[in-house]
Amino acid sequence: MANTIKLAFTEDEAEILIDALDADLEGYRESAKEARGNNRRAEVETFTEAADRIEAVRDRVRAALGQD
Questions:
Q1: Is 50 exposed, middle or buried (0-12, 13-18, 19+ CB in 10 A)?
Q2: What is the maximum span of the chain, computed from C-alpha positions, in angstroms?
Q3: pLDDT tens for residues 7-47?
Q4: Are 44 and 25 in contact (CB under 8 A)?
Q5: 46 vs 67: CA distance, rounded Å
Q6: CB atoms within 10 A of CB 13
Q7: E-state strands within the chain
Q8: SS3 state of residue 4
Q9: Which one of 24, 40, 47, 56 is least enclosed by Cβ atoms within 10 Å?
Q10: Could you give the angle at which helices 41-64 and 11-37 cross, rounded to 10 degrees?
Q11: Whole-prediction pTM value?
């Protein structure tokens, strides 16, 4: 099991983090789409899993800001 780390951010810093995660998420989704188009199944799975994990982290930060 992964260790838990506690961090504190200002609301502005959390917004910056959300923006960065959104950009990263978009990149992984685009990579998955491209891999799917080229029939590279292993890459599709890897990129999709990464996108799902990034989305989960982003959603947790949003929830902490009351943006759910």
A1: middle
A2: 43
A3: 999 999 999 999 999 999 999 999 999 999 999 999 999 99
A4: no
A5: 28
A6: 12
A7: none
A8: coil
A9: 56
A10: 160
A11: 0.89
